Structures are given as C-alpha cells and as structure tokens.
Amino acid sequence: MANGVKLQQQKIRKRWTSDSFGEILLYVGTAIVLMVTIYPLYFIVIASFSDPYAVGNGQVWFWPKGFTLEGYKELLNQTKIWIGYRNTIAYTIVGTLIGLIVNLSAAYALSRRDLFGRKILTLFFIFTMFFNGGLIPTFLTIRDFGLYDTFLVMVLPFAVGVFDIIVARTFFQNSIPADLWEAAQMDGCGNLRYYIQIVLPLSKAIIAVLALWMAVGHWNSYFNALIYIKSPDLYPLQLVIRNILITNQMQSDMGTGEAAQIALRLSNMLRYSVIIVATVPIMCVYPFVQKYFNQGVMIGAVKS
After folding, report:
1. Is there a contact between 48 and 73 (Cβ–Cβ < 8 Å)?
2. pTM value?
C-alpha cells in the first residue's frame, strides 16, 4: 500500500513538473512574441517625439530623446492633410456601408439551400479570386462608366469582396437555424422581411467583423486613388501623406548645404509622425468591436 501511494505521488510530481515546464515555455514564448509585436509600434511612437538625428544615430531605444513636436506641427500645418482626412473618412464610411449591403446580401442568398444554381454562382464568385481582367481593362471599364476621377470610384467598383462573402455565407449557414425561416413563413414573412428583421439582427457579430475589415481596407487604401483619381481634392489621406513624404525627400536630395540638411531633418521628422497620424484613428475603433470580432470568427468556426 505504501509503495502504491509513493508511486502515485511520484507520478503526480512528474506530471506537475512537466505541466509547469510547459507553462513556463508558453509564457516565455508569449512574452517574446508580445515584445516583437509591440516594440516596433512603441518605437514609432517615441521616435515621432524624438530628435531625428538621435533616431538616425540609434540613440533612441526606450524613451524619447530630444523631445520635440516639430514633426506634428509641420504635418498639421499642411492643409492637404485635412482634405485627405475628410476624404478618407467619407470613403471609409460610405465604402463600408456599400460593402456591407452588397456582400451580406450576396452571402445570405448563397447560404439559402433553395437558391437555384447556388453551386454555379458560388463557383463564379470563387473564380474571380484567382483570375481578373487586369489593371488596364479595369481602368478602361471604369473610365467608360464615367467613374474615373470621381468620389464613387473609391467605393463602388471594388465593393464586392469574395472572401467576405464566403465568410458571411458560412456564418449564415452555421449560425442561423433553418427552422427560423420555416417559422417565419408560417407567420407570412417574405424573404426580404426575414433577411432584414430576423437574419441581420442575429448577425451582429459577423457584421462587426466585416465592417472592421472593410473599414481598415478603405482607410489604408491608396493604390486605387493613385490609379483612378487625378484631382488633389479627392486624394485620400494615405495618398496625401505619400506625396508629402516624396516631396520632402526630393527637396532634401536636390538641395545643397544647410537647406539640404533642413529638408532632410524635416523629412525624417515627418516619417514617424505621419504613421501615427494615419493609424491611430482606425486603431481607436478596434476596442469597440473586439468582442464582436472574436465572437464572429469563433461562431463560424466551431458550429456545424
């Protein structure tokens, strides 16, 4: 009996030692990943408040050195920044709303098993994920439709996201019981009313997830504006910032003597401050949709 108790205690001790060692490795690995992820963001913040020469010489590690707000002052003095902010906010809000309407509607239709030709339509959508007409045909199409250099070119032609449709379709199939539709039919509810009054209120999680994805995509978008917009009054924030950085870099490269040094210093100061100005607003949105984001991803993944 005593030998059995000792053997059991040894097994428990070994198991506890193994579990503790595994937990220690897990915590260490998590801490390393956290540092690798967070430190670059932290460095950008402190570098934006530091003297550019100190940053360039590698003197900034954990605290700002030569604290200065000149980069932010110079950036905010640029009137084009405010125009870019206005345009980007408008593109993000309108583009996200249009994207949600289009993609959620298509996803709901594809999730219905009674939809005629559902598999063919799904393959048609998936086909576009691997093959497209190319940049030049797309440009010619947008120009012929009269969308070139207009507000709508940033929110309408690229509103359909096949990946978003597939994610939302999977959510509808796995999370909305088919019995709800049968019960709604018995009460005289049609397809459109069922979709608006029943399906959408039950899909807040996936709506928040797609809204976040689309909003981030619109906020960071600059390539479409670079190709399809020529009027500076329609430039989004990212394109405005790009042009400011390029202009200051060219001035520092073309200048000589003290003027070149001033332009180079200004360019280095703006480099980090523009990252903060461009990313902080969209990062502030994430905490408000985080719970829906986690819920939406997990619901579609674990339910069958």
Report:
1. no
2. 0.78
